[in-house]
Amino acid sequence: MLDEGVVRNGGQTPRGGITAGNTGPEPAGAFSIVAPIDLQVRVAAAQFVYSDLFSAARRRPLHMLAWVVVLLLVMIGVSSWQKSARLGVDGFASRFFNDLFGLGGLAILFIVIPVLAYYAIQPALVRGRLRRWCRDEQLDQAVSVTYRFEPDGLTVVQPGRTTVLACSRIVGVTEGPAHLYIRLRNIEDAYALPLRVLSAEQVAHIKRWAASCHAGAGVPAYGPSEEGAASDPQALLASRFTFTEEDRAIALGWQMERPGMRRRRRRGFALAFLLTALIVPLFFCFLWLLDPERVPFRYAFPLFIEMFASTFWQYAIGFWALLAVIIVLQPWAQRRHAWTLARRLQKQVPAEACEVRLYEDRLDIRQEGWRSTFDMASFDGIERRDSHLIAFRPENEPLFLPLRVLDDDNLSIIERVIGRRAGEDALRTGQNA
Q: Are strands 31-37 and 170-175 parallel, antiparallel or unpaired?
């Protein structure tokens, strides 16, 4: 979401003469709405922004399943043909369907049912993961946000942050089942307003505003480096950069390595070891339950114990060896996944030049058509990670700044200003590999 910082900063942009943080009288034709940003809103906004990525991830197992099913059908067909070669086509068809709907087709069901079950519950799983992520990062607390809709753009005022967007950055409005989404151009985020706090008249008013704002988007957007510079105090630091694919990959990798994510991976691997030890015995139990009268329990149970001692543990060791390989390769696979996502996001949201200005009391991040202003009191520490500087904000997502745009003097200024505001205990400048 927009809180995530420079990596996804669709922040606050003053438009023609409107300065960030301006809470004065509203211009003609403007109106304001106060709405909360809570856990449900954050999850809904993330699902809306990344809906194409989540949908692609949901369809991917179906594509793999189709190839696996085709392969299993070919194997069943070859086996049936070998057994009925002398009986002709009718004999082959009869044998094939007998194998397909008999024990030979159980392997297909054993694969198809879990994949289809995952496809059905995948949206709920995504919502659950997003909720856990927000709770891990202390983003589950509700904050009150003021949205000011003006003829030339949108101003969003949050605790410790003000966002101003020109009409050139507004794509439109989409109404969902529970939220009204404000779509943004070339910004990896969207604003979600809960419909439960909006009246029908307010929804219609926002839609009319979006249509009129979109119609006037051809007007040149506010240039943050030109307008308003004279009225700004002298910045302690000013730098321009373009967020690259590598920057996105590092930010995504940082998110994947958060303590909550690591804890869940450890629990997942422990559960995988347990399930792989039980999957073969459970499969044989399932086969026995299909026709328990064929082998009575008094004979099946001793046979099962014998197979467990002589055969099942070999399968378990094989599965565990595979899991060990996955654990060893997991860091590499995670980095590759981060780069893949970064590449897709870089194509989806083209990178544009950003300007960062640091003042004694605030941090400005500017781009053509938007500007974000963060109160310095909203930061609680900084951390260096690889080639980036991460500025933390309590109950908000952090900001990522590439170290390549900061020389030693600029870096010391940021550490001094943010460190002084946050307090020495919150200054986290450890070098993380």
A: unpaired
Lowest mean pLDDT among 8-12, 129-133, 236-240: 8-12
Give the burial class of 21: count Cβ atoms within 10 A of its Cβ; 0-12 exposed, 13-18 middle, 19 or more buried. Answer: middle
SS3 label, residue 156: strand
179-184 β-sheet, strand order:
170-175, 179-184, 190-194
Question: Which is nearest to 131 in space by CA: 60, 202, 195, 40?
Answer: 40
**Domain 2-40+138-222, CATH number (from 3.40.640.10, 2.40.240.10, 2.30.29.30, 2.40.30.10):** 2.30.29.30
The pLDDT tens digits of the residues spanning 399-420 come to 888 888 887 777 888 877 776 6
CATH dotted code for 353-432: 2.30.29
d(CA 123, CA 53): 12
**DSSP state, residue 86:** G
The encoded tokens of residue 56 equal 């692609």
Q: Which residues face 174 on adjacent strands?
A: 181
| Packed helices 313-348 and 245-256: angle between N→C axes, nearest 10 degrees | 140
CA 184 to chain centre: 17
What are the DSSP calls for 188-214, one per residue? S-EEEEEGGG--HHHHHHHHHHHHHHH
User: Can you give the residue ranges of every domain in the chain?
Assistant: 2-40+138-222, 41-136, 246-348, 353-432
In sign, the C-alpha dihedral spanning 46, 47, 52, 56 is positive
* Distance separating the N- and C-terminal Cα atoms of the chain: 26
Beta-bridged to residue 156, according to DSSP, are 147, 163
Alpha-helical regions (H) of 257-312: 259-290, 297-307
* pLDDT tens figures, 344-386: 888 888 888 888 888 888 889 998 889 999 988 888 878 887 7
| pTM of this structure | 0.76
DSSP letter assigned to residue 312: I
